[in-house]
Amino acid sequence: MNQPTAEQHAEADTADHLAAELHEDRILILDFGSQVTQLIARRVRESGVYCEIWPFSTEPDRIRTFHPRGIILSGGPASVTETGSPRAPEAAFALGVPVLGICYGQQTMCAQLGGEVAGSDHREFGRAHLDITEDCGLFRGVWSRGGREQVWMSHGDRVVSLPPGFRAVA
To answer: What pLDDT score does 26 carry?
Structure first.
């Protein structure tokens, strides 16, 4: 396999720098193989925010030089409880930007940051309701405390306990 040359790295760095200037507010979606990653990106873009989708295995330096304002970890078919399952790059958490984990993304974030994830006795799939228990910046202008929102789920694992410093808002 050919390794990128120094010139190719310089070109990529320049392109990333230009993207940083053109799209100051931008979201990076790290894809774990979700069937709805493109839909997530579309919703972000419909909100007037630039975003890109990259594989979860993206090199940490590339994530850092992209300078995202936030990161979304998509869902995916893997189970956090299985040995060798995909993990989010540590750079996603080290940047100090908000990170939203959706389904598998939430489960791997919890497991990696000190929470506990366990397998369920059965898989859950289909329509569900999400009760909003606290106000938070993520929901501002969309949902409010006390609301009940229809969502879609497809998973077999569940978060048993949150990592230190995390709080449930729904």
So the answer is: 93
Q: Using CA atoms of 148, 144, 168, 156 in order, give the dihedral in degrees to the nearest 10.
A: 40
Q: Do 169 and 134 touch, CB atoms closer than 8 A?
A: yes
Question: Tokens at residue 123, please?
Answer: 């898989």
Token pair in block for residue 60:
């940490």
**Token output for 101:** 């984990």
Q: How far is residue 32 from each of residues 15, 99, 110, 129, measured CA to CA in Å?
A: 25, 15, 15, 24
Residue 11 pLDDT: 64
How far, CA to CA in Å, does 94 sit from each of 63, 98, 104, 157?
11, 10, 19, 25
Location of structure tokens 């100051």: 24
Quick: pLDDT tens for 4-40. Answer: 666 665 666 666 655 555 568 899 999 999 999 999 9
- Start-to-end Cα distance in the chain: 46
Residue type, 23: H
What residue ranges define each of the domains in the chain, with the CATH number in brackets? Answer: 7-116 (3.40.50.880)
At residue 22, the 3 state secondary structure works out as: helix
